[in-house]
Design a protein that fits this description.
By secondary structure, this protein is mainly alpha-helical. Helix content is about 60%, strand content about 5%. The protein folds into two domains: about 5-85, DNA polymerase, domain 1 (Orthogonal Bundle); about 110-280, hpI Integrase, Chain A, CATH 1.10.443.10. Helix 5 crosses helix 9 and helix 10 (about 235-245) crosses helix 12. The two termini are about 30 Å apart.
């Protein structure tokens, strides 16, 4: 039957003989497996391909990633026709224009550039490094960082306590040595200069409690200094650390706990994001 595991393995071997790179072959194989997982054992057909295309359009994935699935199905059809004389009619599958805003993911090199953009020793630089460490290094949501107070940072244990809120439960977030150093420097040498009378950790000169607009403005300033033109927001730092942890091999369950997700399917979106990044790269 078309699309059995042996056929997919034959397709992979065919790509290898054609000289495709290993990373490209792995990407193509995953995309084809997504299609056959959708079929749930039913044979592929023009009608099923169209239904799969419609299904992809209902999910939060980029149109480029949808096109990647259709291209691989076309390539699989070509493989069948050339090697087994079977034919899988794909026809013309239309991919709609992009209508949603995609998540922006900074590369690890770009994250390093953002930190380098705040490499000075003045209060503003120390604030920016603390901000990056909280939202990238600890993967916090916007309001979680805004509502933090210094007492919730345990430098001895390397843990940061995130209070429960209306929609999220409390959790302890581990801090790396770099994060500990950045937050400690900010508290010791900047916070009391910027605004000594506030109870909150992140403070502005005229704001006892910062807001998301203020933090996004500072992030955009760091981007300009680093020469990063991506359209991003504070939440992009949280998406970036989740994607980077996945790329480094961390299990989804641990990433979910780190981010404070109640459901694993909230974390699984980063598997798709990582596959998109790999496909776009290769």
């Amino acid at each position: 039957m078309q699309g059995t595991p042996s056929k997919i393995e034959d397709f992979t071997n065919w790509l290898t003989r054609l000289g495709y790179a290993d990373t490209t072959i792995k990407s193509y194989t995953r995309l084809l497996e997504n299609f056959f997982n959708y079929l749930q054992g039913e044979p592929p057909s023009q009608q099923k391909i169209e239904a799969f295309n419609n299904h992809l359009h209902q999910t939060k994935i980029s149109r480029q990633y949808i096109s990647a699935h259709i291209n691989v199905i076309n390539r699989y059809s070509e493989f069948l026709e050339l090697t087994t004389k079977e034919k899988l009619t794909v026809g013309k599958i239309l991919v709609e224009k992009e209508i949603t805003t995609e998540r922006t993911i900074f590369t690890q090199l770009e994250i390093g550039s953002l930190f380098c953009s705040a490499d000075g020793h003045g209060p503003s630089d120390l604030f920016d490094r603390a901000m990056l460490s909280l939202y990238y290094g600890c993967g916090l949501r916007s309001k979680e960082g805004i509502n933090l107070v210094p007492q919730e940072v345990d430098f001895n244990k390397g843990l940061l306590y995130v209070k429960p809120s209306k929609n999220y439960s409390s959790r302890y977030v581990p801090m790396s040595q770099g994060v500990v150093a950045d937050i400690k420097d900010y508290i010791n040498y900047a916070r009391s200069i910027i605004n000594p009378n506030s109870k909150y950790l992140l403070v502005g000169r005229h704001q006892p409690k910062v807001n998301g607009h203020y933090l996004n403005t500072r992030l955009k300033r760091l981007q300009r200094t680093a020469g990063i033109t991506k359209k991003a927001s504070l939440h992009s730092l949280r998406h970036s650390i989740a994607t980077h942890l996945l790329q480094q091999g961390m299990e989804l369950e641990y990433i979910g706990n780190f981010l404070g997700h109640k459901r694993l399917d909230s974390t699984q979106v980063y598997v798709r994001i990582n596959e998109e990044l790999m496909y776009n790269k290769h």
